Amino acid sequence: MLPIFAKSIDGELCLKPLLQIVFENLYDVGLREFGFITGRGKRSVEDYFTIDSGFVELLKNGNKFGLAKELDVFYEKVGRSHIAFINQPKPRGFGDAVHRAKMFTGAEAFLVHAGDDLIISKKNQYLRNLINVFEEHGASAVFCVERVRDPRKYGVIIGDKVANNLYLVKRVVEKPSAPPSNIAIVAVYAFGSGIYQAIEETPPDANGEVQLTNAIQRLIDQNHSVYAVELSSGEKRLDIGTPQSYLKALNLVVHSSNLASHSPE
Fold first, then answer.
1. Which of 23, 36, 70, 108 is the most exposed place for a label (fewest CB within 10 A)?
2. What is the count of structural domains for the chain?
3. CA gap 2, 61 in Å, rounded
4. How far apart are CA 27 and CA 47, in angstroms?
5. C-alpha span between 3 and 5 (Å, rounded)
6. What global pTM score does this model have?
7. CATH code of 69's domain
8. Would strands 117-120 and 236-239 be described as parallel, antiparallel, or unpaired?
9. Rounded CA gap, 39 and 153, in Å?
């Protein structure tokens, strides 16, 4: 829910919660069913994605017509979507959080997008590439990756390059002390329903958390097809998971010429 800079409908600089921009990016490529995995203290997410017509009128009465217009467009997208809020009672890892969506997605394929990652990408091409690879290759899992300076902070991959910006993944490792590559996982995924069984078969780590990367490795070990799509040179991941990365993200976005990618098409 931390705000970052974006361009408004009228082309002006404005602030939006990062989660709103993620939602709008997913909406703009055609998704209409959303499941938010939340925990204690995250009621603000549910409140924000619940239409508040009274607040729009308050903005209009205060002559804040630009903000009211922006919120009206957001609420129109919310109103056209089916949104569920799914509780994760304890923070037991990303894998456990994804598994909580099983009751929502059932046997259908689905996308996972972390709430603290934003990809600057013209016309949300990163999502279109992800979906295309998933469908064209009949994959069990596809995710985005990028090359980073310090891969020890991320999950990383080893794989065979099979096309431009595309890898057939052979191995994934979570936050390695001795990274086998500098190709880091970006927390945007497409999964078939088989990921749920892989998560169920994945034991918790020493901290009691179920790591999604370990479940993906289980898919690989079971000879499922797993691919990684590398972000192009014109795309950039913004991570707001720490104060330092949040500050960096603010600086990158405000100076980026791709700000228009956050506004509705």
1. 108
2. 1
3. 26
4. 19
5. 7
6. 0.90
7. 3.90.550.10
8. antiparallel
9. 24
Six-digit token pair at 139? 């994959």
Cβ 123 vs Cβ 261: under 8 Å: yes
Cα(149)–Cα(193) distance, integer angstroms: 33
Residue 117 near residue 187, CB atoms below 8 Å: yes
- Across 132-247, where does the E strand assignment appear? 141-147, 155-163, 166-174, 183-191, 226-230, 236-239
CB 161 within 8 A of CB 230: no
The structure tokens listed for 77 are 């997208």
> Distance between CA 205 and CA 93 in Å, rounded?
9
Pairing relationship of beta strands 183-191 and 110-113 according to DSSP bridges: antiparallel
Q: Which residues of the chain have pLDDT under 70?
A: 253-265
| Residue given tokens 């069913």 in the structure block | 33
**Structural domain harbouring 195:** 3-262
113-117: long-range pairs with CB below 8 Å, 24+: 113/22, 113/26, 113/187, 113/188, 113/189, 114/187, 114/188, 115/18, 115/19, 115/22, 116/18, 116/187, 116/239, 116/240, 116/241, 117/22, 117/186, 117/187, 117/188, 117/237, 117/238, 117/239, 117/240, 117/241
DSSP state of 123: G
The alpha-helical segments, DSSP class H, found in 173-241 are: 194-200, 212-221
CA gap 190, 143 in Å, rounded: 6
Q: Which string of b and e fits 160-186 if b means at least 16 CB within 10 Å?
A: eeeeebbbbbeebbbeeeebebebbbb
